[in-house]
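SAMPLE LOG
Freezer: B-3
Tube label: C17
Construct: single chain, 143 aa
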Amino acid sequence: MMIMEINVYNNYPKEITFDYEKIINDISNYFQENEEISLILVDNEEIHNLNKQYRNVDRPTDVLSFPDDESENYLGDIFISIDKVISQANDYGHSLDREFAFLLVHGILHLKGYDHHTVEEEKEMFSKQEEILNALNYRRNLK
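STRUCTURE (predicted):
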């Protein structure tokens, strides 16, 4: 059986208090394609710098995806702000696991060509996200 290979680079300067490795493993097992991504865990400062440099947006964001169009099996890089995982989980009233899983699936779907520029695209992408998260039991509001 093939699984998606997710190479993790933990650049987050503090301790991560949830089992992100289990979540990454669950999600890589879900995507049974011979594909590879890099996942870089960062803080708000680092993602803010990337957002400003590559998107001209002068604020931190939760997740950034950088597709790699050069390689057949390497989809690209995903950056997730652990600071945003924590603050958004609190804001939305659900677990850190759910928020991290949501952002990782969101980033992967971007690398696979999904987007949310139009209402139709958003509906398709968000429906796919919920389908994956529900299948893996990372459901909304499970505090």
